[in-house]
Amino acid sequence: MLKLKLILQAHDIEQAALADACSYSQPTISQLLVHDMWPRSAKQRRLRETIQGFLKLRGVSEDEIATAFEKVAPTLAGAGPDINAQQDEEEPMSIPKQILHPNTRRHFGLVRDPFDEVGSADEFYQNEHIRFTRAAMLDAARRGGFLAVVGESGSGKTTLRRDLQERITTEQLPIQIIKPYVVGMEDNDDKGKTLKAAHIAEAIMTAVAPHATLRSSSEARMRQVEQALQESYHTGTRSVLLIEEAHALPLATLRHLKRFIELEDGFARLLSVILMGQTELAVKLNPRNASVREVVQRCELITLPPLGHYLEEYVAHRLKLVDVERKKVITDDGLQAVRERLEPQVPRGHEQRSYLYPLAVHNLMIAAMNLAAENGAPCVSADIVMEVSWAR
Length: 392
Hints:
The protein is α/β, with parallel strands linked by helices.
């Protein structure tokens, strides 16, 4: 961080006053003080002069002003090394899981961790993007659709999968979910175990006709799978093949999925396919990739976006689960700081990337709440959010 932050503390000068003098938001000034990140729109020399003039008016000595922009190690209790000063900076999406300390729960009056995994359908947060995706998943399962749901790690894919299973169970829908075993799955046999068409056929037969003996030849096996799915369909049950971690599917298996989705009984498809994976899956399903073009033409692709302007609504929803108002935990400028930490500015000409996904928000919120409790702050402010550093 900059020595300027310590100078402000030593002279009992609030960061808000400096922000007002410079005509910038408090989170922006906090980012400058803590991480030496200058506003992109600012001319650094002019902003330096404004800050120096402000310090002089507040009675700061010339010697202190001369060293105000030197970097020093953070001193706030609980703050680790500055991740932005590291040579090999970790992306915010790679931050480790944070644990809400018992003292933090007592400090904020929380009966449990509001950012823990969703435990029921009532706790499931939905905005327009989530509602559309969950509706598309159920529709695909009902009508024999082919759908790929793509999102960053922590974007909510697992919650959507659980929600689909929960709806099928609670609404007693005649849909059978078939989930191939994907633990240790990789897209080549050098790194792990690939999921092949034969494994998918085995998974289908195990779910639809568990007592049948799978035939040895691939042609006979596919006919056996088709017959089993037909018999299941005639009893009124739809079958949906749901593959998680689908970004690790080999291209050959993606191509072979075409044969599975073409299994039909008249106009009705016998098998729905839902793929769920990280962004690498979208790369594999690129229409320009000639090797999977026929599959891509049949597959609807949905990408889960970051929370964006739903951030405040999402945090308020999670805190409401434990009967706590959002403003009693984090201020408005604190939320803005969360946004700035997870949607960092990039140099001109570089691609802007957002990390404002639920899991990253959870980890940053918990770390900031722990830090606030350690320092006796009544709630999480922008300064506290900006102080959070991730232990390596």
